[in-house]
Design goal:
246 residues; mainly beta; Immunoglobulin-like; 4-stranded antiparallel beta sheet; 2 helices; 14% helix
């Protein structure tokens, strides 16, 4: 007891109570600030243009005469696809032509050997981002083919001695023309040739392959196709091989 009838509390206990009160007050302030921050700041903010990317329809070198599609996609700061973008395409070296200079898709047609750079600008609400795609253009590649006749005289044999890489059997077509110029066999994918239907069959050098390889043989009936008929092996780019059956 002290004068006046009050009770004296130990100093250590009093300090502990004060410290605990300060901790609680700080914790309350932090919690309130956190709620204010989360409530007033949506994750990432409002969607805004962050980047644009170009995706080609195919990879690898392009040949002169070949066309390839390119697609542009705009993204926001959270990595989500952003709608409403305006796209503009251009060529740096002008080694070909574009099917369109606007929109999210264009097709590039190669006309000259060399390097080409496609550029796309994407714009949304005053923001503009760019991306580029490099393309290597090479000369059109022919297919080496030799002609012979089977020992029994029943088939013409077209043997592939050289094939440009990556040319699918489904995309390379055989056509045969009568000596008078009429079409005996309209352009037919090598993968579809049937003796009973076309008078020709494909013998693969590597069974199971999906692309033309050196050593592949195409057998065509001499009964179906007369001497001095002409053949062509072609695709959407051009004629890869041609010759006369004799």
């Amino acid at each position: 007891m002290v004068d006046g009838g009050t009770t004296s509390r130990p100093a250590g206990r009093r300090n502990w109570i004060i410290a605990a009160g300060v901790v609680v007050a700080v914790a309350v302030v932090v919690v309130i600030a956190g709620f204010a921050f989360l409530g007033g700041q949506p994750s990432g903010g409002a969607p805004a243009l962050s980047r644009v990317t170009i995706t080609p329809d195919a990879s690898g070198d392009m040949e002169v005469g070949e066309s390839r599609g390119f697609n542009a996609t705009a993204y926001d700061q959270n990595g989500r696809t952003l709608s409403g973008a305006t796209f503009t395409w251009s060529l740096a070296q002008s080694r070909g032509t574009l099917s369109s200079t606007t929109g999210n898709h264009t097709s590039f047609s190669a006309t000259t050997v060399g390097a080409e750079t496609l550029r796309v600008n994407a714009s949304v609400n005053g923001l503009t981002k760019s991306d580029v795609a490099a393309v290597s253009i090479i000369a059109f590649m022919t297919m080496g083919v030799t002609l012979s006749m089977s020992t029994d005289g029943q088939n013409w044999i077209l043997t592939v001695v050289y094939a440009p890489p990556g040319k699918p059997y489904t995309g390379e077509n055989l056509a045969i023309f009568h000596p008078n110029g009429t079409v005996n066999l309209s352009a037919t994918p090598l993968a579809s040739l049937q003796a009973a239907v076309h008078g020709c069959t494909l013998n693969m050098a590597f069974p199971g392959s999906t692309t033309v390889k050196a050593g592949d043989r195409i057998l065509c009936s001499t009964y179906w196709y007369a001497t001095d008929s002409t053949y062509q092996i072609s695709d959407r780019i051009g004629v890869r091989a041609s010759g006369t059956l004799r």
